[in-house]
Specification:
- This protein is of the alpha/beta class.
- The protein folds into two domains: 2-110 and 181-293, Rossmann fold; 118-176, Histone, subunit A (Orthogonal Bundle).
- The chain has 13 helices and six strands.
- Strands 3-2-4-1-5-6 form a six-stranded parallel beta sheet, with helices on both faces.
- Helix 6 (133-143) crosses helix 7 and helix 9 crosses helix 12 (250-272).
- The longest helix is centred in the last third of the chain and has 23 residues, at 250-272.
Length: 294
């Protein structure tokens, strides 16, 4: 049994290639995209089209609502249940996406961190709005001096989540992060997609233009009242929400979506570069990828 992982930066062409590969291996696709899982985010997350979904069965595409609290820990349990079930009738299963945390959750497992406390999170978010991030950082480092080397303390979401865990559990967040790999009952082959950086950025820019033509602005307006939801703190929506608040023009918002998506792609590339077991291919290298797997 082999779990075949297809990963790479946003916009590089994972969706089209994964469908061809899944057809070749006569199997199904587990999505490892932390935003395509939400059914309300129909345009801004670039999920597979209805036609593509009809070609190959996908899991975790539009399977949850933005009103659901969905974590990487829950995804790990849900994905493994489906993967193990598929291995009863398939020799291969594809895991496809660009969310490094979701991929790690399936391949390595993640630490057993307590789930979100809605009321506590609400209070921490209010503190962030009223007092700013420095106040939260100060309290977090007081409760957990070792945490600074483990998370990006410049990221407000990471700081708020770590503080939430410290308060809810009564223990330092760092003490709950065991950082050991869980055993899996299947082999894992990781295939990474890479291409010229300028070509990738051109693809991203064109994709944003296509999203706007498809109605992303209207979709964001319908979701505006939920802008404080964690699922909506996402590139493509954040920038349009700022536009609706009068902070930028629409033209500026579109350029910021392109810029921030390119930056996200760069962070993905950096994340995946840490793993020496990934075998890298160009998105057009279908035959070479088949040979590598077989």
């Amino acid at each position: 049994m082999k779990l075949l992982v297809l990963l790479g930066a946003t916009g590089i062409g994972k969706t089209d290639l994964s469908i061809s590969l899944a057809k070749y291996f006569k199997t199904e696709i587990i999505s490892a995209d932390s935003r395509q899982v939400y059914r309300e985010l129909d345009i801004g997350t670039a999920p597979p089209s209805p036609q593509q979904l009809a070609e190959v069965k996908h899991h975790f595409i539009k399977s949850r609502s933005i009103f659901d609290e969905y974590t990487a820990g829950k995804y790990e349990a849900d994905a493994l249940e489906i993967i193990n079930k598929l291995f009863e009738t398939h020799d291969y299963v594809w895991l496809v996406g660009g969310s490094g945390l979701y991929i790690d959750a399936v391949c390595k497992g993640i630490d057993d961190i307590p789930g979100a406390d809605t009321e506590l999170r609400k209070n921490i978010v209010e503190r962030y709005k009223n007092e700013g991030i420095e106040s939260l950082r100060f309290e977090l480092t007081r409760l957990d001096p070792d945490i600074c080397g483990m998370i990006d303390i410049r990221n407000p979401q990471r700081v708020m989540r770590a503080l939430e865990v410290c308060v809810a559990s009564g223990k330092p967040y760092s003490s709950l992060r065991k950082n050991f790999e869980k055993s899996r009952r299947f082999d894992i082959v990781k295939i990474g997609l890479t291409t010229d950086r300028n070509l990738l950025y051109d693809r991203i820019n064109r994709r944003v233009d296509n999203m706007m033509e498809a109605g992303l602005e209207n979709e964001a307006r319908e979701l505006y009242r939920f802008k404080d939801f964690n699922a909506l703190k996402t590139v493509g929506y954040r920038e349009l929400f700022d536009c609706f608040d009068g902070k930028t023009s629409l033209e500026q918002a579109i350029e910021l979506i392109k810029q921030n998506t390119r930056r996200y792609a760069k962070r993905q590339i950096t994340w995946f570069a840490r793993y020496p077991e990934i075998k890298w291919f160009h998105p057009d290298d279908f035959d070479e990828i088949i040979k590598c797997i077989e």
